[in-house]
């Protein structure tokens, strides 16, 4: 995780981003450090780590890609599909990593919970512990995603 001062510098970039409609922080009034700290606490309550979460997200996306655009069963309790648009999206952190504009949807058939994430979400969670702010179109709710995919 970046130092607090680095995170504070990102706050304005994430709120005013032209890369993502509404920015990466959405309507969340908390500062970046609070958002990250609270989300990590939520993930810990769910007894998951960033690495176990990200590993599962990558596994699901990888299984969904061959069925591009169609729902496919990946095990007894999960269906998934991916949608992909032309182009790439760049990480707002200074690493400037670039990702396909791909969205993975997962439905837990036992609970009915449907969650989604982008390839950039996986990177943001894995490298920056950032799930995006509340109100952001692409926010990944830690508890909700854990309930849906494990």
Coarse structural class: alpha+beta
Overall average residue pLDDT: 91
Radius of gyration: 15 Å
**Which shape, going by the Cα principal axes?**
globular
Poorly predicted runs of 5 or more residues:
none
Q: What strand order characterises the main sheet?
A: 1-2-3-4
Write down how many β-strands occur, each being a DSSP E stretch of 2 or more residues.
4
Order of helices and strands: HHHEEEEHH
Terminal Cα span = 25 Å
How would a crystallographer describe the biggest sheet?
4 strands, antiparallel
**What's the total helix number?**
5
Percent of residues in beta strands: 15-25%
Query: Helical amount among residues, as a percent range?
Result: 25-40%
Give me the secondary-structure topology.
Blueprint: H1 4-15, H2 32-45, H3 50-64, E1 72-75, E2 78-90, E3 98-108, E4 114-118, H4 119-128, H5 142-149
Helix pairs in contact: 3-4
């Amino acid at each position: 995780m970046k130092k607090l001062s680095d995170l504070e510098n990102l706050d304005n970039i994430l709120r005013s981003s032209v890369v993502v409609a509404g920015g990466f922080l959405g309507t969340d009034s908390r500062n970046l450090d609070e958002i990250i700290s609270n989300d990590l606490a939520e993930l810990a309550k769910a007894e998951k780590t960033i690495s176990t979460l990200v590993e599962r997200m990558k596994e699901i996306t990888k299984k969904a890609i061959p069925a591009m655009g169609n729902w496919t069963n990946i095990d007894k309790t999960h269906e998934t599909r991916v949608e992909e648009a032309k182009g790439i999206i760049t990480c707002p952190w200074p690493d400037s990593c670039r990702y396909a504009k791909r969205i993975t949807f997962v439905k837990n058939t036992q609970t009915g919970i449907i969650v989604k994430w982008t390839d950039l979400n996986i990177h943001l969670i894995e490298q920056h512990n950032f799930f995006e702010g509340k109100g952001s179109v692409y926010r990944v709710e830690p508890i909700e995603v854990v309930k849906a995919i494990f």
